[in-house]
Amino acid sequence: MQMVEYLIIPVIKILIVFSVTLFIAAYTTWLERKALGHMQLRYGPMRVGFHGLLQPIADGIKNFFKEDVIPENADKAVFVLAPAISITAAIVLIAVIPVGPTVTIFGRDNGLYIANPSIGILFVPKPDSLAAAKVPRDSKSPALVRDPTSGVTTLA
Q: Which of 58, 92, 95, 98 can pair with 113 through a Cys bridge, CB separation 3.0 to 4.6 Å?
């Protein structure tokens, strides 16, 4: 029973939050593409599924099998880890948001959130600043830098 309480239920919660986050991101992109298509007097994504509703799934499959191209002068570790840092910061922000009342699962009361920091409102700005952290770049190219204390974005 201990394993269910401390391992299985949190893993299920994490998978649900991760899946919902990716679903929302995919279909927000689809909605944006549809809106831009109508603004430009064209249909937008229409080829996969009814009105293109399966387009995000087709895009995901395409990106999964797409070859990764890393520029030769790029720092390979940063190039690979930067997207993971961004999605991790987004999911950490969502993890502290309660989405409903306490429910009973396997005879144990569970809150509909992953983490329950008692200072949740103070916790939210920290991962947000991590998402836009300055990544070391080539000195010849400018970088946008967001100051986490003031929230001002400048060109460095």
A: 98
Q: Please give the mean pLDDT across all residues of the chain.
A: 76
Is the pLDDT reported for residue 146 higher than 80? no
CB distance 95 to 114 below 8 Å = yes
Instruction: Kindly give the pairing relationship between strand 108-110 and strand 144-146.
Output: unpaired
pTM to 2 decimals? 0.62
Half-sphere exposure of 47 (CA within 13 A, CB side): 4
Question: Within 13 Å and on the Cβ side, how many CA atoms surround 2?
Answer: 0
From CA 79, how far away is CA 138, in angstroms rounded? 12
Beta bridge partners of 109: 104
DSSP single-letter state for residue 51: G
CA atoms of 75 and 109, how far apart (whole Å) = 46
**Alpha-carbon distance 5 to 7, whole Å?**
6
Q: In 3-state terms, what secondary structure has residue 156?
A: coil
Q: Nearest-5° angle of CA 62, CA 77, CA 149?
A: 100
pLDDT single digits (tens) 97-142: 777 788 887 777 777 777 766 665 666 666 556 555 545 544 455 5
Q: Is 33 helix (H, G, I), strand (E, B) or coil?
A: helix
